[in-house]
Specification:
Elements: H1 12-23, E1 29-33, H2 38-54, E2 57-64, H3 71-84, E3 89-93, H4 104-117, E4 123-125, H5 130-142, H6 147-150, E5 156-157, E6 170-172, H7 180-189, H8 206-221, H9 225-254, E7 255-256, E8 259-260, H10 262-266
Parallel strand pairs: 1-2, 1-4, 2-3, 4-6
Antiparallel strand pairs: 5-6, 7-8
């Protein structure tokens, strides 16, 4: 299989299949978060093709943030896409406060993830890709995040140990190593329509400012920055895991019968 760095669009389904085989078992239920944008539309097409091969159940969910005047049209568009592929579809409207002290982007994301956590499936599948990961890393750096924040988005977050276990579904991102352009080429070559969110070109949003103004300049000097940033995210994730392991070792000495031993803490570095 080609590396994701030079992944031809035709090999994208095989790449996603390889990722899914690492996490998904036959009979499990995957629900795709479908916005109608090019990324999630590409993933819908691929998952619809793979469901018979891998034996998973597939549905799609559209979260209507009710922010754009085109929101209802996007929901209808997603419904048509799913009907054409015989994919069960649901849409849920959420209310995003305006103004919100966290900012509109963060408030919309929180509302979206609250919906995801309440879904009855094994995995909520998100179409975040390599460019999204690079943008997330830069945003976290600008916020002064520690190693956990700088690990950005994991491929899988949370997982039910057993089928039927209660709790939020796991989040799966099989496209994290795939550049945005590969997804766009995949959809274009197949003549599949998608929608464009007009807010994606608004530089008032931090992510859009990075995407349209900073990263093109960075790419001219460092064309491989996406894969380099993704490697940095993995390194930060490993460092965060090691710190958690160290905290567990220290905690074994300092936490006794739900009490904190101050004498043990004094033996540790500040």
């Amino acid at each position: 299989m080609a590396s994701s760095k030079k992944l031809p669009p035709d090999e994208l389904p095989s790449f996603v299949e390889h990722k899914l085989r690492q996490w998904v078992r036959p009979g499990q239920h995957l629900e795709l978060a479908l916005s109608g944008g090019v990324d999630s539309v590409a993933l819908l097409e691929i998952l619809a093709r793979l469901r018979a091969t891998l034996g998973f159940h597939l549905s799609a969910l559209h979260v209507n943030h009710q922010i754009s005047p085109n929101a209802a049209a996007w929901a209808d568009f997603c419904a048509r896409l799913c009907a054409e592929r015989d994919v069960p579809y649901a849409t849920i409207a959420v209310h995003v406060s305006r103004p919100d002290p966290k900012g509109l982007e963060a408030a919309a994301r929180e509302a979206r993830y609250r919906v995801f956590c309440a879904r009855h499936c094994d995995f909520v599948v998100l179409a975040h890709h390599l460019d999204d990961q690079a943008e997330t890393l830069l945003l976290q750096l600008l916020r002064g995040a520690g190693v956990k924040g700088l690990s950005a988005m994991p491929e899988v977050r949370g997982q039910r140990a057993e089928e039927g276990r209660e709790g939020a579904p796991a989040v799966l991102r099989p496209l994290l190593e795939v550049p945005r352009q590969t997804l766009r080429d995949y959809v274009k070559e197949r003549g599949i329509p998608w929608v464009e969110d007009e807010s994606n070109v608004n530089p008032a949003f931090d992510r859009n400012f990075l995407r349209h103004h900073l990263l093109p300049v960075l790419e001219r000097r460092f064309p491989a920055y996406r894969t380099t940033f993704h490697r940095a995210c993995r390194n930060f994730a490993e460092a965060a895991e090691l710190l958690d392991d160290l905290a567990g070792i220290d905690g074994a000495e300092a936490l006794l019968r739900d009490r904190l031993d101050l004498y043990a803490l004094r033996g540790l570095s500040p």
